[in-house]
Design a protein that fits this description.
154 residues; mainly alpha
Length: 154
C-alpha cells in the first residue's frame, strides 16, 4: 500500500485556522450573495477578456458622463471595484479549496484502502478461527458501504 500523505495539524494551528475561517464568515460572508439554481446561466458574465472592456467603459463613463444617462456611474464603479477585489480573493480561495479537497480525497482514499485491507485481514482471521475475528468482521460487515440489506432487515 502506497502512503502518499501523512497529514496532521497541531491543535493550536487548527484553532488558528478555524479562527481565520471565523473572520471570513464574519467579515466576508455577510457581503456575499447566493444565486438561485440556474440563475448564473441566465446572467451575462464578465470573464478575463470582458474585464478590460468593462474597466475601459467605466473610465469613459467617468470622463464623458453625458453618455452615462442610463446607468448609475457610482454603482458601476462599485461593481467594477467589487469584481477586482473578489477576483483577488477568489483566486486564493479557489487554490486553497482545490488543495484542501485534493488532500482530503487522497487521505480518504488511503484510509479507505487501509480499512478494506483490515477488513480483508479480519475475514481471513475468521477462516483461521482466531480470537475476536468474528466480532471484528461482523461489526465491520454491518458498516461496510454499499452492502445489500438482507430480506430480514427490510
Amino acid at each position: 500500500m502506497d502512503n502518499r500523505i501523512s497529514f496532521s495539524i497541531e491543535d493550536a494551528d487548527k484553532q488558528e485556522i478555524l479562527a481565520a475561517l471565523d473572520v471570513l464568515d464574519r467579515k466576508l460572508l455577510p457581503l456575499l450573495i447566493e444565486l438561485a439554481q440556474g440563475e448564473a446561466r441566465e446572467l451575462p458574465t464578465m470573464g478575463d477578456k470582458s474585464y478590460a472592456f468593462v474597466f475601459k467603459a467605466l473610465e469613459f463613463a467617468k470622463q464623458y458622463p453625458e453618455y452615462a444617462a442610463l446607468i448609475d456611474v457610482a454603482e458601476f464603479d462599485k461593481d467594477v471595484k467589487a469584481v477586482g477585489l473578489l477576483r483577488e480573493f477568489y483566486v486564493r480561495l479557489s487554490q486553497l479549496s482545490k488543495k484542501v479537497h485534493d488532500t482530503m480525497t487522497l487521505a480518504g482514499s488511503e484510509a479507505y484502502v487501509a480499512g478494506l485491507t483490515y477488513y480483508g485481514t479480519s475475514k481471513e482471521a475468521v477462516k483461521r478461527k482466531l480470537p475476536n475475528a468474528v466480532l471484528i468482521t461482523e461489526e465491520l460487515k454491518q458498516r461496510f458501504p454499499g452492502r445489500n440489506k438482507s430480506k430480514k432487515e427490510e
